[in-house]
């Protein structure tokens, strides 16, 4: 049996990161989490470090095979360039998963402030590719429209499962892995219909037109 990759998870105490840590350990990977010195986190193995402290970040990266970033704030998303730089210097990483876990940023269309956030994520992907860092991007194909448009639903546990399964899968290297569970592809009208069946009542529905939605977003 091939040896399991050693995984470093950055943001392992967050809403998505904690599930990735659990899934990684459950799958038998030697699992590490990068935490700040003053952070309390119950894990088997910790690396003390910070994405804003280059030397500690490089030191932690050199001890693993795969880096998964699960940081969530817009500022931290943009600062993933620091992780890319550390991976480049370390020179030993066979796969990097940036903090994506949402829509495919090269296909999605949105309005500000969401549009700006997507462009930041896209710029991180371009940096990864320019530096020649091996990667896997996880994303969903979502199209938001009227109540009949299909949308893909997933939860953090699903994202964690797909992420860890992709770690040692050669088919996902330098690719975008789309999360599309068939049973989770529904329109909002279908969701409402399921809810009506569950409660045994017909709900009064109000539809928000696109121009009305844009005005609300801009406000």
Write the layout of secondary structure elements.
Blueprint: E1 7-10, H1 17-26, E2 31-35, E3 46-48, H2 54-61, E4 66-69, H3 74-78, H4 80-90, E5 95-97, E6 102-103, H5 114-130, E7 136-140, E8 150-152, H6 156-166, E9 175-178, E10 185-187, H7 188-199, H8 210-218
Parallel strand pairs: 1-2, 1-4, 2-3, 4-5, 6-7, 7-9
Antiparallel strand pairs: 8-10
Helix pairs in contact: 1-6, 2-4
What can you tell me about this protein's structure?
This protein has 219 residues and is an alpha/beta fold. The protein has one domain (7-184): Rossmann fold (3-Layer(aba) Sandwich), CATH 3.40.50.720. The protein contains 8 helices and 10 strands. The chain has helices at residues 17-26, 54-61, 74-78, 80-90, 114-130, 156-166, 188-199, 210-218, and strands spanning 7-10, 31-35, 46-48, 66-69, 95-97, 102-103, 136-140, 150-152, 175-178, 185-187. The strands form 3 sheets. Strands 3-2-1-4-5 form a 5-stranded parallel β-sheet. A 3-stranded parallel β-sheet has the order 6-7-9, covered by helices on one side. A two-stranded antiparallel ribbon has the order 8-10. Strand 6 (102-103), helix 5 (114-130) and strand 7 form a beta-alpha-beta unit. Helix 2 (54-61) packs across helix 4 (80-90). The longest helix is centred in the middle third of the chain and has 17 residues, at 114-130. The model has no long low-confidence stretch (mean pLDDT 83).
């Amino acid at each position: 049996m091939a040896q399991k990759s050693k995984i470093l998870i950055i943001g392992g105490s967050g809403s998505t990161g904690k599930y990735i840590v659990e899934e990684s350990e459950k799958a038998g990977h030697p699992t590490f989490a990068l935490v700040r010195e003053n952070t309390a986190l119950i894990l088997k193995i910790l690396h003390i470090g910070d994405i804003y402290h280059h030397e500690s970040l490089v030191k932690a990266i050199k001890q693993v095979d795969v880096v998964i970033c699960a940081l969530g704030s817009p500022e931290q998303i943009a600062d993933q360039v620091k992780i890319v730089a550390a991976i480049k210097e370390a020179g030993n990483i066979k796969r990097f998963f940036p903090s994506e876990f949402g829509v495919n940023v090269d296909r999605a269309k949105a309005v500000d402030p969401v549009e700006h956030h997507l462009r930041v994520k896209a710029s991180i992907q371009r940096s990864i590719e320019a530096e020649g860092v091996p990667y896997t991007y996880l994303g969903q194909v979502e199209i938001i429209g009227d109540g009949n448009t299909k949308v893909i639903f997933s939860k953090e546990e699903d994202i964690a499962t797909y992420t860890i399964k992709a770690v040692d899968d050669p088919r996902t290297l330098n690719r975008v892995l789309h999360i599309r569970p068939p049973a989770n592809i529904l329109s909002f009208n279908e969701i409402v219909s399921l809810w009506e069946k569950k409660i045994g009542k017909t709900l009064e529905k109000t539809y928000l037109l696109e121009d009305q939605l844009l005005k609300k977003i801009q406000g």
